[in-house]
Design a protein that fits this description.
By secondary structure, this protein is an alpha/beta fold. The protein contains 8 helices and 13 strands. Strands 5-4-1-6-11-8-12 form a 7-stranded mixed β-sheet, with helices on both faces. Strands 2-3 form a two-stranded antiparallel sheet. A hairpin with a 2-residue loop joins β9 and β10. The two termini are about 25 Å apart.
Length: about 250
């Protein structure tokens, strides 16, 4: 089974403004070494022995292309494709790559959202996908900390206030494996919609059709760097430890 890595890094990063007026959101520096976030993700793929990677670029894409070039400096092979101008969203970007033949010689796609940092085992995710012969395998974390306080009320009286509680939920973390054959389903959606999202539109459609969608539980670290508040609170020490792990 041949797997190709796909990293989504074409968005404008509006939640990260004003930083993204100057940086592509996947190129913001993280950790004490101030390496681009995307470099960590690329090295995570290499560490997992997934060496063929497609970067779906758009906004400020030249920053990415000029930094990573063909990927040889990082021990991988990188291809690039600009997001289509006639369709918005991650779904159109992915389907654009499919129709242009970037996935013709692979069985599965390992898709990674470019504003997520994690220590997920991509190998275990792919092995789970193959074990269940799944059409889609979603990386799932148990629990989510909401960014606001929650009031527990009795009528108009507040009985308890919990600041930023953890909720017992199964949450997706922006990493998934998709069987190449499901791209035809994505194509049906792409023809009908000007804006198309992988997680919001494509995956629910696959589930509704009764295809096999399984969850791979990730109990380790993951962090969405998608807002200025989250970026400011990202612990450099945590990032440095993750870098050390994948560079060994």
């Amino acid at each position: 089974m041949r797997v190709k890595g796909v990293i989504l890094c074409g968005g404008e990063g509006r939640r990260l403004r004003p930083l993204t007026y100057y940086f592509q959101k996947t190129m913001i520096p993280v950790g004490s070494r101030q390496k681009p976030l995307l470099e960590y993700i690329v090295k995570l793929f290499r560490w997992s022995n997934i060496r063929d990677i497609l970067l779906l670029i758009g906004y400020k894409g030249m920053q990415i292309l000029n930094y990573f070039e063909d990927g040889s400096r990082f021990g991988v092979n990188i291809e690039y494709l600009e997001d289509p101008v006639d369709g918005r969203g991650s779904g159109h970007a992915l389907y654009n790559a499919y129709v242009k033949g970037f996935f013709d010689d692979v069985d599965d796609l390992l898709i990674y959202y470019g504003d997520i940092i994690s220590d997920i085992s991509l190998n275990d995710l792919v092995n789970t996908h193959h074990h269940y012969d799944a059409d889609v395998t979603l990386a799932i974390a148990s629990g989510y900390q909401i960014p606001v306080g929650v009031a527990y009320m009795d009528g108009e009286r507040v009985r308890k206030l919990v600041e930023k509680p953890w909720l017992d939920l199964n949450v997706t973390i922006g990493v998934l494996t998709v069987k190449r054959d499901t791209m035809d389903i994505l194509g049906g959606l792409a023809r009908d919609r000007d804006e198309l999202d992988i997680m919001g539109d494509f995956i629910p459609k696959v589930i509704d059709m009764g295809l096999t969608v399984v969850g791979y539980r990730h109990d380790g670290f993951w962090y969405d760097v998608g807002t200025t508040e989250k970026y400011e609170k990202l612990d450099n020490d945590v990032v440095d430890k993750l870098y050390l792990k994948i560079e060994q």
